[in-house]
């Protein structure tokens, strides 16, 4: 029977990489990572070129840093600028709590439950296998890793297909439904980058139909993403993520909502990281009116939209629809 190889989902590969980089203080070389960490190891054994895997590793590092995970690069002691044999690690000290933070008994109980879940689920069989290989090389490894969960949230179903298409430089087609349109429209793009903005994932690429750069919100992708045989130069990906984020930030800077938010609520906690203080409440920039209206409506009475009126009307419409759905119960 011919040997079969399993292709790890990109998010699984990222988790395995974080686990490996946090498990050693001295750091891991790129060669050790590619030969030991699940997601790279299988592809290396299947005959993938070292150059392709190294490029994948560089993109993964960029994605993790974009999620707020500090990957440290350690050069040679004699010459710190010499990165030919660089080692990589995630310094666990970055996640030590400040001394002035304390928790109530109820909060500690909830944290213990979360820690138990992470303790049993964070180290998958693939991750443990990778750590065993790293330990066999004589590199000290801390296991289990408890108390740190990487900020890799559950993503939209289309994420893995777009990630694979970007890695392989392949044109994709998919159906995309914009608000107010009766049916989705077929899109054909060169996908260049996946970026997270306002806690939502977007794919940025060159729309071959519109002959222009476009950014698409992943939750609006309808059905499957099809990878075609048509390819494009990998050089087109260079700087694509930065261009996408700059474009989204520019849109958000033009669209700002004035909100009144009850302190100490979920809405207050979630909106605080992107809110600016205002005399009447807070000002929050946003990219998409309909997506932001969905979020604000989910907070119920915790938030009130002062302006713009278009956003306020959309939030009210969603709340009224919810009331009707539940039979008008107060």
Automatic annotation (TrEMBL):
Residues 159-221 form the WYL domain. Residues 281-323 form the WCX domain. Transmembrane segments: none annotated. It comes from the Bacteria. Pfam families: WCX, WYL. This is Predicted transcriptional regulator. It comes from Microbacterium testaceum (strain StLB037). The lineage of its organism: Bacteria, Bacillati, Actinomycetota, Actinomycetes, Micrococcales.
